[in-house]
Amino acid sequence: MSDLKSIGYNDWFKSQSDNEQIAAHDVARIVSVHKDSYVITKGETEIFAELSGNLLYSTESATDLPTTGDWVYADFFDDDTHAIIYGVFPRKTILKRKAAGKLVDFQLIAANIDIAFIIQSLNDNFNLRRLERYLVMVNESNIEPVILLSKCDLMPKDEVDEIKEKVMIIAPQTTVIAFSNLNRDNIDSVTSSLKSGFTYCLLGSSGVGKTTFLNSIIGKDQFDTQSVSKIQSKGRHTTTSRQLIKLESGAMIIDTPGMRELGSMSVDDGLDETFSEILKLAQNCKFSNCSHSNEKGCSILAAIKDGILSEQRYQNYLKMKKESDFNQMSYLEKKKKDKSFGKLVKSAIKNKQR
């Protein structure tokens, strides 16, 4: 059990465990996912694993399958060189986004994250509206966000402070740290804040310096990095899969591939928390059914006119709210169809076996 504790197995997960599963199997954590296979650990060695037939058969969607950071029930064979996964623990937190493209479905990023480092670089990549999307995704998952502004060596300190002030306006309760992988500004302060037994993750677009930052806090070039395109100021993907890494401090961190698309899906709570000041303003409108478009006595329009609320921030909120409502409706319809189809397939298999 001590090895499990070292990789984050705490009282919350113990309370969520299934007594029958615990009696029949070992407990392990997902280190990484590779299409149909997994790498899991009990705290020391990492072992390749696959799903049991029953677990595969009983899943109704991709969200029922294990993802990086999940706790699972597993059996180990051949001196712990191979394992079979039989079930997944309830998740304390789950970081997910809308699948890229037109698909109306979730893509799981990682599970059981305590703190998410949202990284944006202080060059052409910096974008407050994109940062708001990351904050919505993290807040929806009930994960604590920390905003890291990389490459602070590229501009004067007063310009860095100005950008930090803009970030603090949209995320007043969030820790914001500017750092440099090149001269190690504030790297040590981030490293010293990492707590043993906590699980962190790195979020951000390609080229913001996530993998270089990871190498910096590890203290060696353990993971490959690539240069940023000078023509487009866009990074090349270095991380291609999500991987749980245990640090010397006892903290765990999951690096994630750069995201070119951040689709929102059913993120009402995340929107409410990220744009809380807009909801507060709406409560002060003269009319309860105010559309916030042209009514007299609209607190939101007044705040925009007085410069208290950014027009761009409000428009970004409306855009994400519209996307969320549409995607949620479409996803529920899709889930209903998938469930009906799954029952039809299972019924056909049973009839064939008779």
UniProtKB/TrEMBL annotation:
InterPro entries: G_CP_dom, P-loop_NTPase, Ribosome_biogen_GTPase_RsgA, RsgA_GTPase_dom
Quaternary structure, from the entry: Monomer. Associates with 30S ribosomal subunit, binds 16S rRNA.
Chain's role: One of several proteins that assist in the late maturation steps of the functional core of the 30S ribosomal subunit. Helps release RbfA from mature subunits. May play a role in the assembly of ribosomal proteins into the subunit. Circularly permuted GTPase that catalyzes slow GTP hydrolysis, GTPase activity is stimulated by the 30S ribosomal subunit.
Family the UniProt entry places it in: Belongs to the TRAFAC class YlqF/YawG GTPase family. RsgA subfamily.
Cofactor annotation comment: Binds 1 zinc ion per subunit.
Gene Ontology CC entries for this record: cytoplasm
Chief place where the protein resides: cytoplasm
Protein name listed in UniProt: Small ribosomal subunit biogenesis GTPase RsgA
GO MF annotation list: GTP binding; GTPase activity; metal ion binding; rRNA binding
Cofactor section: Zn(2+)
Positions bound to Zn(2+): 285, 290, 292, 298
